[in-house]
Specification:
Length: about 375
């Protein structure tokens, strides 16, 4: 089983490629603005309206944040603790909370630890504007799209001035990224070795041309040779277009709204543990653990200590969920800044993923 974090609650990002711009989705999940407006209508609409009145778009416009805990947390870094105290369990405009770069880093840590939640533009908001769904606040989605579209490209112009056009771009990008994920999975399962990584093969220009039915001097046709089964409540919205893109049959079974929940029970268990190493002073490396803070004078020692702790937690959580043989994957994201020609450590984020199949019991 292979999993990809992509769906209606994937965060939308603006990307730049020379003078061309576009959108990409994920990997972080956020609360759709259309849902945020249902939960806190006065705060969300007032902030969106005020941001739309401004002649210049703000970097934090269209984004909100809230705490997910009801009491102070012990053993947090001082800055993290101060930021958490500024948050409430009801949503606030992100611009009212974040004052500088250090606050942003603190917020990333709080979100990674599950202590804070971000609300921002998602494909679900785009679906409301396109008329595919109407369960939440469409007007808030329209405002969020207009705000997002005001961002400036490298050419110095607004990315997209029309909410409906932007919504379609987001919907098309979800189709594109979902299709790539399925193609990559297909190449992983292919018996034939095509001499390249599945991720690269999925994006290969010849394959993409074949999916579009290229017909010139060469005629190229491509597609998945098996049907795709769409599960989840949003499957009827997103997956038919994926089937068309991949030239394959898309099967949408009855009761698809609960089928993915059943699959989560019988499928592969995935447990993640993440943490951060900060640097409060030059030459000092602070490991943030749930129960304490540990300081080191060596960068690698600090990161390795964090990895060992996270690995132990991820393996324990996976085994507690019934996994016998835990497969562990570790990723590091180390941020450094160049100051006077010297690399200065800023922060390291480590994520450990423990996966495996749950044991099967027989009566």
């Amino acid at each position: 089983m292979r999993t990809t974090g992509l769906g209606g609650d994937s965060e939308v990002h603006l990307i730049f490629d020379s003078l061309e711009s576009g959108v990409t989705l994920g990997p972080k999940r956020v609360l759709p603005v259309s849902l945020a407006a249902i939960e806190n209508p006065d705060v969300v609409h007032a902030a969106l309206d005020e941001q739309l009145k401004s002649s210049l778009p703000g970097e934090l416009d269209g984004r909100f944040v809230r705490s997910t805990v009801f009491k102070p947390q012990a053993n947090l870094h001082d800055r993290d603790q101060r930021l958490l105290k500024k948050l409430e369990t009801s949503l606030k405009p992100l611009g009212n909370v974040i004052a500088n770069r250090l606050d942003r880093q603190a917020l990333v840590r709080l979100v990674n630890w599950g202590l804070a939640e971000i609300s921002a533009l998602t494909p679900t908001d785009a679906s409301h504007v396109l008329g595919f769904t109407d369960v939440w606040d469409k007007m808030a989605a329209v405002k969020a799209l207009r705000i997002f579209g005001r961002q400036r490209t490298k050419a110095g112009v607004a990315f997209c001035n029309d909410a409906t056009s932007l919504a379609q771009k987001i919907f098309d990008q979800l189709t594109h990224q979902t299709a790539l994920a399925l193609l990559e999975t297909a190449f992983f399962e292919e018996v034939v070795d095509f001499g390249n990584k599945p991720k690269d093969l999925a994006k290969h220009p010849l394959l993409q041309a074949g999916l579009l039915g290229h017909s010139g001097i060469l005629k190229i046709d491509a597609g998945l040779n098996f049907p795709v089964i769409g599960l989840g409540a949003s499957a009827p919205v997103y997956y038919p277009a994926v089937g068309e893109r991949l030239n394959c049959k898309m099967v949408l079974p009855e009761n698809i709204g609960v089928a993915s929940a059943i699959g989560a029970v019988v499928g592969r268990v995935t447990m993640r543990a993440s943490g951060t190493v900060s640097s409060p002073n030059e030459g000092q490396y602070r490991v943030h653990l749930p129960e304490t803070l540990l300081d080191f004078t060596d960068e690698e020692t600090a990161i390795s200590t964090l990895e060992a702790n996270l690995r132990e937690r991820a393996e324990a959580d996976a085994k507690a969920s019934g996994v016998e043989d835990v497969e562990v994957e570790i990723t590091r994201n180390i941020r450094k800044a160049e100051v006077e020609g010297k690399d200065i450590f800023v922060e390291a984020q480590v994520c450990v993923t423990g996966t495996g199949r749950p044991r099967i019991t027989k009566n």
